[in-house]
Amino acid sequence: MSSAAVAAKPILAVEHVAVHFGGLIAISDMNFDVREGELVSLIGPNGAGKTTAFNVITGFLKPTKGRVTFRGESLNGLKPHEVTSLGLVRTFQRTSVFEKISVFENVLIGLHRRTKASLLGTILALPSERRAEAALREEVWEILRLVGIDHQADEMGGSLPYGDQRLLGVALALAANPSALLLDEPVSGMNASETGRFIDLLNKLRANGKTILLVEHDMPMVMGISDRIVVLNYGRIIANGTPSQIQNDPDVIQAYLGQGVKHA
Amino acid sequence: MKRFLPYLAVAFFASVPLWLQDQYFLHTLVVTGIFIIAAMSLNLLLGYTGQLSLGHVAFFGIGAYVSALTSLGFSLSIFGVQITHEPWPAVVGVILGTIIAGLCGYLIGKLAFRVRGAYFVIVTISFAEVVRLVSLNWVELTNGPLALPGIPPLTLGFEWTGFATLWGKGQNYYVVLATIVLAYVLIKRIVNSPYGRAMIALRENETLATSVGVSVTKYLVLAAVISGAMAGTAGGLYAHYIQIIDPMVFMFLNTVTMVIMVITGGKGTLAGPLVGGLIFGIAPVILRDYVGPEVQWILYGLLMILIVFVLPEGIVPAVERWFTRKTGNSAAKRSALVLESSKGARS
Ligand SMILES: Nc1ncnc2c1ncn2[C@@H]1O[C@H](COP(=O)(O)OP(=O)(O)OP(=O)(O)O)[C@@H](O)[C@H]1O
Ligand SMILES: [Mg+2]
């Protein structure tokens, strides 16, 4: 755990959130926060409610109870694109890229939040709009290089190998210029070397000051990279602490790590 | 080659009135051109945002009626208040028709895009039906089924240049051609801009688009406004060219014609509505010499089914693909986003 993260204030706070789907309680009274610059992992067995938590935080789902705040502002009632415009951006568990659009243009779409085109300027094809567009294209290359898929810029999103599609999903999210990034199982389906490179990418992002909330089943990765881990089981938080605290927590071992996952 | 195609096409069509003898065929081209403008406007919604407006003729008809009434003048009483409007120039009518059709696009967009897909289709159909009923029954304003006759033709010019009244087919032909060029450039600039990218992103994957910050309502409504306004312009041109309109202008068949033009030509492509529009605008005139009207409609339908089955994406994408294969340019796979290959200059 980096000491900077301890001192920082929470920027994302999930306060007493509950989500019911009819009779099913997907989340009951969830309470945790993420501090500026911190990397927090949200882990738990399948169906524990991790993705549901992401959906609530990013405005795709209204909580039955409770609220989420980001930088002190309540996110209740905000639409997903409004949450994004506050700098809180997510990726999806099921691979989500614009399949019939080239990788380059995928990221160009991702840069939507950074375009300041005016409709009139666009219609009149003003030189300023063209310059802005050229600058945007430059940014696309930077993001593609950062994520490491620049050599595939001309491929269609849907024709990339699975692992690269996951990376493209992250590139899209990064293009939206998040200050806090929510990653839902980013390395699922990646092989060991791809995962290794992804961890390098995460470290780069952290060095740039990005706050990260990570959902991931890859325990060695989670234990190695997290400042703090929140453990969810059947919609309830059963533990919240540093990797070593979590590894030695009897409840966690019972509920989760006991399922055959070896200690990292 | 592909870069010059639009210029060649414009040059060719500009020359047509110079050598075409058949005045009826020229008339067909003017009407076809007007419908092409409407089809282009529909394409912005259907092709780029993926929302099917099956009431698109409403915007066309509103443009036609607003433009006609503005230039004819009218007098009616609403709740005992007498409103009299003195005739204004036809050009002002077309502009007003465009604006009001655009406003209707805004209202329909706001209403319908809350729930998209099938619901939008139903709202647009109902809207067109309501407008048709109004045009039929508000006799004091629209003359109802008796039609609005004597709509003045467009006049162009200024106080200091003198005015030219566009009575002839040839003159109207050039006005329509110029409008098509303007509409084409407008749509091209929009779809190749961040605005168009947002619309296409919503069409391709709405969840993902919103997650990177694209506002669904903003961009769908924007598309509906531009689309409605452009269809309104087409309607205005129609009214001043034909010089008489009645509620038949709102018939569903007109919407269907626009949809057919867009789908067969290639929705979501710039040239699609032009190609589809030319085929389905001119086909009736050619078929007319050989078969009766009923058979004509059957052939029309068969032609559409054939095109959709053989080339499900439409003619333009198919030709493009064939062309790239011919020239051996295998790298130019077609991205759904940008039509003119606009690969970022690699740095
Ligand atoms: N839209 C929905 N409607 C009904 N039930 C849902 C919905 N979304 C999720 N659930 C249920 O809520 C519970 C939590 O699901 P969630 O997807 O959040 O789990 P998860 O922790 O992300 O699991 P995994 O590790 O498999 O991704 C599950 O029982 C799931 O079936
Ligand atoms: Mg999940």
List the helices and strands and how they pair.
The complex is a heterodimer of chains A (264) and B (347).
Chain A: H1 3-7, E1 10-21, E2 24-35, E3 39-43, H2 50-57, E4 65-70, E5 73-74, H3 80-85, E6 88-90, H4 103-110, H5 119-123, H6 127-147, H7 162-175, E7 180-184, H8 192-207, E8 211-215, H9 219-225, E9 228-233, E10 236-241, H10 243-247, H11 250-255
Parallel strand pairs in A: 3-8, 3-9, 6-7, 7-8
Antiparallel strand pairs in A: 1-2, 1-4, 4-5, 9-10
Helix pairs in contact in A: 4-6, 4-7, 6-7
Chain B: H1 5-19, H2 23-49, H3 57-72, E1 74-78, E2 81-85, H4 90-112, H5 118-137, H6 139-142, E3 155-158, E4 162-165, H7 169-191, H8 194-204, H9 206-211, H10 216-242, H11 252-265, H12 272-288, H13 293-310, H14 315-326
Antiparallel strand pairs in B: 1-2, 3-4
Helix pairs in contact in B: 1-7, 2-7, 2-10, 2-11, 2-12, 3-4, 3-5, 3-10, 4-10, 8-10, 11-12, 12-13
The structure holds adenosine-5'-triphosphate and magnesium ion.
Residues 21, 24, 26, 44, 46-52, 93 of chain A line the site of adenosine-5'-triphosphate.
Structural class of chain B: mainly alpha
Q: What fold name goes in the CATH topology slot of the largest domain in chain A?
A: Rossmann fold
Rg of chain B (C-alpha, Å) = 21 Å
Please provide the ordered H/E string of secondary-structure elements of chain B: HHHEEHHHEEHHHHHHHH
CATH architectural group of the largest domain in chain A = 3-Layer(aba) Sandwich
pLDDT < 50 runs, ≥5 residues of chain B: 339-347
Shape of chain B: globular
Any idea of the CATH class of the largest domain in chain A? Alpha Beta
Average residue pLDDT of chain B: 85
Helix content of chain A: 25-40%
Discrete helix count of chain B: 14
Number of helices of chain A: 11
User: What structural category do the secondary elements of chain A indicate?
Assistant: alpha/beta
Folded structure, characterized:
In chain A, α8 links the parallel β7 and β8. Chain A has helices spanning 3-7, 50-57, 80-85, 103-110, 119-123, 127-147, 162-175, 192-207, 219-225, 243-247, 250-255; strands at 10-21, 24-35, 39-43, 65-70, 73-74, 88-90, 180-184, 211-215, 228-233, 236-241. Chain A is α/β, with parallel strands linked by helices. Mean pLDDT of chain A is 89; it is low at 1-5 and 260-264. Chain B has one domain. In chain B, α4 runs antiparallel to α10 (216-242) and α12 (272-288) packs antiparallel against α13 (293-310). The longest helix of chain B has 27 residues, at 23-49. Classes of the chains: A alpha/beta (264), B mainly alpha (347). The A-B interface holds A 58, 60, 79-82, 84-85, 89-90, 92, 96-102, 104-105, 108-110, 112-113, 115, 117, 119, 122-123, 125, 129, 133-134, 136-138, 140-141, 153-154, 156, 172-173, 175-176 and B 186, 189-190, 193-195, 197-198, 200-201, 204-205, 207-216, 222, 331, 333, 335-338, 343-347. Bound molecules: adenosine-5'-triphosphate and magnesium ion. Magnesium ion is lined by residues 50-51, 93 of chain A.
